[in-house]
Structure formats: structure tokens, C-alpha cells
Write a structure and sequence with these properties.
The structure holds two protein chains of two kinds.
Chain A (H helix, E strand, L loop, with lengths): L3 H14 L4 H5 L14 E5 L3 E6 L2 E5 L9 E11 L2 E10 L2 H7 L17 E12 L6 E13 L14 H5 L7 E11 L4 E11 L7 E11 L6 E14 L2 E16 L2
Antiparallel strand pairs in A: 1-2, 1-12, 2-3, 3-4, 4-5, 5-6, 6-7, 7-8, 8-9, 9-10, 10-11, 11-12
Chain B lengths: L1 H14 L13 E3 L1 E4 L12 E8 L22 H18 L3 E8 L10 H8 L4 E13 L5 E11 L3 E8 L8 H6 L4 E7 L7 E7 L8 H18 L3 E7 L13 H4 L29 H6 L1 E2 L3 H6 L20 E5 L9 E2 L12 E6 L3
Parallel strand pairs in B: 3-4, 9-10
Antiparallel strand pairs in B: 1-7, 2-5, 3-14, 4-6, 5-6, 7-8, 8-9, 10-12, 11-12, 13-14
Classes of the chains: A mainly beta, B alpha+beta.
């Protein structure tokens, strides 16, 4: 086992020497301290979409959920210092319309309609740092804190106890929520790349206080580089109301790039 | 409706590859789950008889108007509500003191009952040492009515050790669409051997037959129950068996409860009504379904006794504020019951929408 890790590292680093600049080619900035360049857009199906307002200011949102759970994030790049790219990200999420839609009788009722969902907004702030340890591999780390503003206290039983969803709405039931993570991405060859990241959600005010997610993704960009396909897995662990659980989920995404 | 189905299908796809299936299916026969008390309590050898009791405990919902079975609007109960109801159930069990207890609708981990492991809670607060459980319903997430996770089981509790415990799958309903059936309950029986001193071939069987099937599913459940009893009988076993058969005893005066069970927005028996009868409330087609069981084995409540005063033996009602209005719960044996020991505990009005029924089983000399 000890021999396998250096071998994998060697393969990754050697192929990276032949690959082009990751951020410039694939304009992929999610999870890193880089921002997309001015007037460039990344439109994701099933994922977030980003737009470069300026060369160091990126606006992102989730188009698929925009009308029922509006979410905006602004990422500001603070430039490179001693080889480390730095950025801060500031976001706002308003899930109330979606949750009210899901609090219904019958099929697709993910929340019981006996609960009323108050007006709720989550505000998150993150610090991101990235570096290029080997070739064009990007290693990033982030730390963030999320607060919620509510017009009332949601019923503790109105949670949606599912992976991915629960930790992202947990802040409305117990705040603040901290998130810490690392992201490792690079290219095997010009068109093929990988993303491996880990995200931790920590809620110190409750016993259901820890959630973990790990993504392992292979990416493909065709010759024109105007789109990117992603496929992989998402491994989730969490302390849910029903107990500690693991989930292994498929992850598929398509991202279209416009502009330089 | 189409849009909702798409959301549900997307959810299935989203969770399809998770470590645990979204809704669990079962083999025809599987080993049941074993439970035991944290501390094994001392047991004395039985003298002349064993008290046997069956009770559908309605997952600790008491008489709360739950949306699924009582025209109610409640879905998710609070922890306080469930613990309060469980305490009432435990108090009744400790008062009646059955030696073998058959329970239906015991939640092991369900959002609707505050994720309380009701079986372990009951074992730890009664004199029972052992239990076996078979899932009646096991879904990681039901994307309907806010139900979420649901793990409900049928269990057999005993003072003495249990072995050879099996969960026996009953037929699935044929009158549901595939999506509903995927997430719906999977009725089952639990069959086991109880190691009672002096009795080396004593078996217990617990069944919860379909409540709402509108086709012949319930009849097939009763036949499967009978087949299991025949099997035990054929190997020389002595059994006590029962549960919630969801059908009326032969000779019942009232067979149609559609009007009694009707919710305020519903209409039945009127020209143009479709369906004409409420799901699970019209027992008229089931008139003869228990005849074979009654003729082969000894029912704790013989037909002639039941007929003398049916009201006295009613065990269930769907209406939260009403008294018992029908009999759905049964006990059978291939050995002997002690005469005049059968009790329908109609005083237990707050613990569940079913009363417990108990009887003394005569130990073979």
C-alpha cells in the first residue's frame, strides 16, 4: 500500500508537466482561490454557474434552483502573495420558497405540511488559498462560517434528512456552521483531468454536529474547450437525526464555457 | 402529478447508488433480527400456563389523528408525544404481564416517531429479556407527505431465549402503481422458537396482514399465515400465533365500515362514487377468509363466544375519539387455551388504535 501512493503521485505530477495551464484552459475556478476572467462565463448543468465581473471578481449562482432557492456568491481575488493565491467568497442563500414548495401533502412532499417554514436567509463567508505545488496541479484550502437570519424558528422535525441537503440547511436549525476543506485538481493530459476534494461541515451548537463530503471526479474537455464533462462519486458521512450514516452517490456535471 | 413523479424518480436516481437502498426489499424468508435487554432479568419456570398477548401498538402514536389512517393531519410526532405513548404501552404490558408478546407496528427508526428505537425502549422498561423483529417497512427516505425515513417492524418478545427466528415475506399488493409499491410497506410474518423450560418445540408466529389492499392480497396473507402454521404443526411443533389480520371474525354483524371511517372530504356508497368503498373499510368480500384457520386451529375467541356479544370483543377503531367498533386482532394455537382466560383489554383506550388481546396458553403436561 505504501508503494502505491508515491506511484500515483508520480503519474499525476509527470502528466501535469505536459498539460497546459489548468485555470486558463479550463477556466475552472470552483473550490480554488482563482476567479474566472472578465466577461467569461461558466454555465453548469446540475452545478453552479460563474461569471467574471472583472478579472478579480466572480459572481456565481445555481440557475436550476434560481427561482425557488436564489443563491448568489461573490468571489474576490486578493492576488498572489509568496506563491499563494488568495480570495474571499461571500454568499447569500434564500431557500424559503423551495422549502415551502416541498412542505406538501402527497408525492414530492419532502417536508410534512404540518410545519410552517419561516423566512430564512443564510450568509456565508469563506477564505480560500491556492498554490501550485507541482506543475499545474492546484492545491486549495478554504475555511468559512455561515450564519442564518430567520423570521422565526423552524420546527426541528422539518429537516430534510438526506445527504448533501441536510448539512447545507443545518445552519437554519443550529448556527453558526463552519466549513473547512481542501481541493486538489489537475490534468492527466490536456483534455483529461481530475478533482479530489474534501469538505467538512461543523455545527458546534448541536449534537448532530459533523458532516463530511469527499468528491472524486474525472473531467473531460473536448478540443474546443468550450465545455467540460465531469463524472465521479460523492462520499458523504454525517451525524443525521436518525444516526450516523454513510452514503456513496454518483456525481455527473456538464459545464459550458463562454468568453475568453 | 407527473412533475411530482419526476421529482421522486430524480430522488431515486440521486440516492440509487448510496450504501443503503432507498427502500429495502426482502428475500422470501430471511433471518429475523435479534434483540436482548441490556441486563438479563431473572426468570422463573412457568407453572400451569403462559400468558400470550398480541397488540398493534401503532408506532407509539396513540390516538393522535395521523394522516395515514385516521383522517388526521399529523405526520411527524414529537419526541414528547412518542415517549408519553410508549410509557402508556409499557405500563399496560407491565400490568398484564404476558409471557410472550406479539407486537405489530413497532418503529425502530422512523422520522414520524422521532427516530426512537421503540423495541429497545420497551425491552429495557419491561421484564422481557429477548425479542426478534422483522421489518414490515424499511425505507431510507419516502419522498411523500414528509415521511422521510421509516423503519417499522413486527416483533415477538419473550422472557426466555428465542432461536430459529425468521422473517417471512408476505405477498406485495397488486393494486398499487410501481412507484408507490417501491416505497410502500412490505407486510411480513415473524416466526420463531422460544426456549421455554420443559417445552422444546414451542413456536410463536406474529403477522400483520395488509390493511388497505383492495384486491386479494390480504386473503393471500392469511393463506400464507395458515401455511406457516401448517408447517410448524407438521414438524410436531406447538405454536401460539396471531396478530393483526385486518379482517373480521366469521359471523360479524357489521361488514362495511366505509361510512364510519369516512373522512370529511370523502364520499362513498353514493351513485357515481369511485371508489364505491373506502380502502380497507369494506370487509364484506372477506366473509369466509378465516374459516379454514378457525376450523384447523383453536382461536382464542371462538366464533360462538364472539357472537354472543360482539361489542365486548371489538379491538379497533379508526376514529380517534370513538370506542372500539370492530375486531381485527387474533390468537390461535394448535394446542389448548385455558378456558375463560381470554381478555380483550378494551380499557386501553389511549395507547393505540387497537386494544391488546390476551389469553392463557395451557402448558402440555
Amino acid at each position: 500500500m505504501k508503494k502505491i501512493f508515491p506511484l500515483i503521485l508520480l503519474v499525476i505530477t509527470s502528466v501535469n508537466l505536459f498539460s497546459e495551464n489548468l485555470v486558463n484552459v479550463n477556466c475552472w475556478t470552483n473550490g480554488t482561490a482563482y476567479t474566472v476572467s472578465k466577461h467569461r462565463a461558466e454555465l453548469g448543468v446540475f452545478t453552479g454557474s460563474s461569471y467574471g465581473l472583472t478579472d478579480d471578481l466572480e459572481l456565481s449562482t445555481r440557475p436550476l434552483l434560481f427561482f425557488v432557492a436564489p443563491q448568489f456568491k461573490l468571489k474576490k481575488s486578493w492576488g498572489e502573495h509568496s506563491g499563494f493565491q488568495m480570495a474571499t467568497e461571500h454568499g447569500i442563500l434564500y431557500p424559503t420558497p423551495l422549502l415551502r414548495l416541498l412542505a406538501r401533502k402527497g408525492i414530492a412532499g419532502l417536508i410534512s405540511d404540518e410545519f410552517s417554514i419561516p423566512q430564512m436567509i443564510a450568509i456565508d463567508n469563506r477564505f480560500l488559498i491556492s498554490c501550485r505545488p507541482v506543475g499545474n496541479t492546484i492545491l486549495s484550502a478554504h475555511a468559512g462560517i455561515t450564519f442564518a437570519i430567520k423570521s422565526g424558528k423552524p420546527d426541528a422535525a422539518s429537516t430534510i434528512d438526506l445527504p448533501v441537503i441536510y448539512p447545507r440547511l443545518a445552519v437554519f436549525y443550529s448556527q453558526p456552521e463552519f466549513d473547512l476543506g481542501v481541493d486538489f485538481q489537475g490534468n492527466f493530459f490536456t483534455r483529461f483531468g481530475y478533482i479530489f476534494n474534501v469538505e467538512n461541515f461543523i455545527l458546534p451548537q448541536t449534537t448532530r454536529n459533523y458532516f463530511f463530503e469527499n468528491n472524486g471526479i474525472l473531467t473531460y474537455s473536448p478540443k474546443k474547450k468550450s465545455m467540460r464533462l465531469e463524472g465521479g462519486y460523492k462520499l458523504c458521512y454525517g451525524k443525521y437525526p436518525s444516526g450516523n450514516q454513510w452514503h456513496l452517490l454518483p456525481k455527473i456535471a456538464m459545464i459550458f464555457c463562454f468568453g475568453k | 402529478m407527473k412533475k411530482n413523479s419526476i421529482i421522486s424518480i430524480l430522488l431515486i436516481l440521486f440516492l440509487a447508488n448510496s450504501c443503503e437502498p432507498l427502500a429495502t426489499g426482502f428475500e422470501t424468508v430471511e433471518e429475523a433480527q435479534y434483540f436482548s435487554a441490556d441486563q438479563i432479568k431473572p426468570v422463573t419456570d412457568p407453572s400451569s400456563g403462559l400468558k400470550i398477548m398480541t397488540w398493534n401498538m401503532r408506532f407509539g402514536a396513540g390516538r393522535i389523528p395521523w394522516f395515514g389512517d385516521a383522517c388526521g393531519d399529523r405526520v411527524i410526532l414529537t419526541e414528547e408525544e412518542v415517549y408519553h405513548q410508549l410509557q402508556l404501552i409499557v405500563d399496560k404490558i407491565n400490568l398484564v404481564k404476558p409471557d410472550v408478546l406479539l407486537l405489530q407496528e413497532v418503529d425502530l427508526m422512523a422520522k414520524r416517531s422521532a427516530y426512537i428505537n421503540q423495541l429497545q425502549w420497551i425491552i429495557d422498561r419491561t421484564y422481557f429479556n429477548y425479542a426478534v423483529s422483522g421489518y414490515q417497512w424499511k425505507a431510507q427516505f419516502i419522498p411523500s407527505d414528509g415521511l422521510g425515513r421509516l423503519e417499522e417492524s413486527n416483533v415477538i418478545l419473550s422472557r426466555w431465549k428465542i432461536s430459529d427466528a425468521r422473517r417471512i415475506q408476505l405477498d406485495l399488493r397488486d393494486d398499487q402503481d410501481k412507484l408507490t409499491r417501491y416505497f410502500y410497506e412490505r407486510c411480513c410474518m415473524v416466526s420463531c422458537k422460544i426456549e421455554i423450560p420443559g417445552l422444546n418445540n414451542f413456536y410463536a408466529v406474529n403477522i400483520h396482514a395488509s390493511a388497505f389492499a383492495t384486491d386479494d392480497t390480504k386473503q393471500r396473507h392469511i393463506l400464507q399465515f395458515e401455511e406457516e402454521l401448517d408447517r410448524i404443526n407438521s414438524i410436531g411443533g406447538v405454536f401460539v400465533a396471531g396478530g393483526d389480520l385486518n379482517t373480521l371474525p366469521p359471523g360479524s354483524d357489521t361488514l362495511d365500515y366505509c361510512i364510519q371511517d369516512m373522512c370529511s372530504s370523502e364520499s362513498f356508497h353514493q351513485p357515481g362514487d369511485n371508489p364505491m368503498h373506502k380502502e380497507g373499510s369494506n370487509y364484506a368480500p372477506e366473509l369466509t377468509w378465516l374459516n379454514s384457520l378457525y376450523s384447523k386451529y383453536k382461536c382464542a375467541l371462538p366464533t360462538e363466544v364472539y357472537k354472543t356479544n360482539q361489542y365486548k370483543y371489538f379491538t379497533h377503531t379508526t376514529r380517534g375519539t370513538h370506542f372500539w367498533d370492530r375486531t381485527l386482532d387474533y390468537l390461535f394455537t394448535n394446542s389448548r387455551w385455558i378456558d375463560n382466560s381470554f381478555v380483550t383489554h378494551q380499557d386501553a383506550t389511549q395507547e393505540s388504535d387497537h386494544t391488546p388481546v390476551s389469553i392463557l396458553f395451557e402448558l402440555p403436561k
